[in-house]
Write a structure and sequence with these properties.
The structure holds two protein chains of two kinds. Chain A contains three helices and no strands. Chain A is an all-alpha fold. Chain A starts with a helix and ends in a 17-residue tail after the last helix. In chain A, 62% of the residues are buried. The C terminus of chain A is likely disordered. By secondary structure, chain B is mainly α. Chain B has a domain of 177 residues. Helices cover 72% and strands 2% of the residues of chain B. Chain B is built from eleven helices and two strands. In chain B, strands 1-2 form a two-stranded antiparallel ribbon. In chain B, helix 1 packs antiparallel against helix 2 and helix 2 runs antiparallel to helix 3. The longest helix of chain B has 33 residues. Chain B is globular and about 65 Å long. Classes of the chains: A mainly alpha, B mainly alpha. Chains A and B meet through helix 1, helix 2 and helix 3 of A and helix 1, helix 2, helix 3, helix 4 and helix 5 of B.
Chain lengths: 110, 314
Amino acid sequence: MTIDNLFALAACALIGIGIYGLIAQPHPLRKLIAFNIMGSGVFVLFGALAKRGASAGLAADPVPQALLITAIVVAFAATAVTVALMLRLIEVSDSASLSESAPSPDRRDR
Amino acid sequence: MIAPVVSMVVVALLLWLAVWSVVAHDAFLAVAAFVVYGLLLALVWVRLAGIDVALTEAAIGGGLTGALLLGAVGRLRRTEAALSTEHAGTGTRIAAALLAVGVAGGLMIAVTMLPEQPPTLAPLVVPALPATGVGNPITGVLLAFRALDTLLEAIVLVIALIGVWSFGPDHAWGGRPGPRYSADPNGMLAYLARVLPPLGIVIGIYLFWAGADHPGGKFQSATILAAMWMLVQMAALADTPRTDRNILRAGIVVGPLVFIVVGVFGLWTAGAFLGYPDGWSKPLILLIEMALLPTLVLVLALLMNGPATRKAVP
């Protein structure tokens, strides 16, 4: 087993860990962390494939690597939007619950 | 001989931190594990020969995302206790675990069945790179061969900022985001916020300039510059900016606008959107990068600041 394969297999495990957390954790912040772990697993898998594509004197295929830089920045932007949405949710409803049956205190539009 | 052992230790730590940040009881511990995870991920990128990706991951994936989540966890603290009674049922947990194992297992099987001769675009990039005038293949891909992706990314960032801003209360629209920080004006933080920014600005601009031929570039540079601005804000040396200032808004959109103008210019002179005429690629790439830098610095910092919460006092 080569080193690239080791990272690719670890990336698959990261995706699995992220999926579990995304479903099993009730708190939205924990879901967000789990989602980021799942996303980084996808990135590492992609990066391991880029490493396999090393040729023409380069240590890795630069096209997937450039796309990864784009992906990391976009993932940060999406995380920022989610955090803002989450903070607004607790501000408006005084609860971070995503459950439909959760007791929602009197809603005030502030 | 030592390299495989280091890789295995890094992978083991990475998986352990990932599990911990998913199952930890305390949200703060989960975020702390995630920050360390992000920094460790940068090491993985070094091992995968992606120095540019490693710099981006350390700066944005670990640094900015970690800081953002740390800020959120403090404000979500009081909701955590109420939610601790809310548990996913055993059935949901088992189903989630089965789904996770299924997806991970399927991907692992796919990884072991990859073709011996991996597909690669590197042989296409290397001979075409001299025509772009930049020496770093990643920068070449980002701003010449796949410039459309970078343009759309800049637009996504601006849209994300509009999204964050629109989560603020109506009465504060155009005001200043977040609380006004207070800090001891003679304290350590204020001292660091005076000493570090000059160094950070020089390092940031160096990374920006070096990105043409060496690892680095506008994203890594913009993160450092944005971090310096955040430091000054947190040390209460400057307030967060008013989001209705025209110059701020102009700085936010200048990058994508210049990018689009250069793209249309290419349509006219080189026959393709974002095409660069012969001999013009280096100056045009430089123009785009210089226009994108203020956009990236402002958007990254303002995404960290969040929506406006205080009406600006005129």
